Task: inverse folding
């Protein structure tokens, strides 16, 4: 399931979901409209959505979150881990949600609260190391949020940061990211392995465009 970023809905993730379907995966939108901010009500709806997908496929669900969507899945992973296989964040400032970015004002306008008012416990939950495998995909050419906010500062055998070259709006439309996502989705729950970053060299050589 792919969770969209701030002020966007499932239309923004259509391209990446279509690619994943082309590769043979069951890819879904979150079907909860526009993503504005994390709330207890939203969490209940997300848990219900995960339950539905789990029951349909009888296997745990991989969560992919773009920008605020990445923060969303990181918080959710701490609260309802039982049916989540792994979390993959795309340009998501989960490690410092209260840090100043070029979209902080936009969040304040839509959510009707400053990022500084973001629930303190959820702030900790987003930054905490997930209870399941996690991959944070970030870019130093993001342009909207600082890449330092988009990585786990403590990594390990099931927690990894992977750098790509794209801007913030390009995470869901960049072939390099697609390739990483496919590699992650093919990982076995019982034998999850870190992404081999040496593959990025070959991927970049064959990528005909960047966003």
Result:
């Amino acid at each position: 399931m792919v969770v969209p970023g701030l002020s966007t809905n499932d239309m923004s993730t259509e391209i990446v979901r279509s690619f994943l379907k082309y590769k043979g995966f069951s890819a879904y939108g979150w079907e909860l409209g526009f993503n504005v901010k994390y709330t207890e009500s939203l969490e209940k709806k997300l848990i219900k959505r995960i339950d539905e997908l789990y029951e349909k496929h009888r296997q745990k669900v991989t969560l992919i979150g773009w920008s605020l969507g990445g923060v969303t899945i990181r918080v959710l992973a701490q609260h309802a881990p039982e049916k989540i296989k792994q979390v993959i964040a795309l340009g998501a400032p989960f490690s410092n949600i209260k840090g100043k970015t070029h979209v902080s004002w936009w969040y304040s306008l839509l959510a009707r609260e400053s990022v500084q008012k973001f629930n303190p416990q959820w702030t900790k939950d987003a930054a905490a190391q997930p209870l399941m495998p996690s991959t944070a995909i970030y870019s130093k050419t993001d342009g909207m949020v600082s890449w330092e906010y988009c990585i786990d500062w403590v990594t390990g055998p099931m927690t990894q940061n992977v750098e790509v070259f794209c801007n913030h709006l390009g995470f869901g439309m960049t072939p390099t990211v697609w390739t990483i996502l496919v590699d992650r989705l093919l990982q076995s729950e019982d034998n999850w392995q870190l992404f081999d970053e040496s593959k990025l060299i070959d991927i970049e050589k064959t990528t005909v465009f960047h966003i």
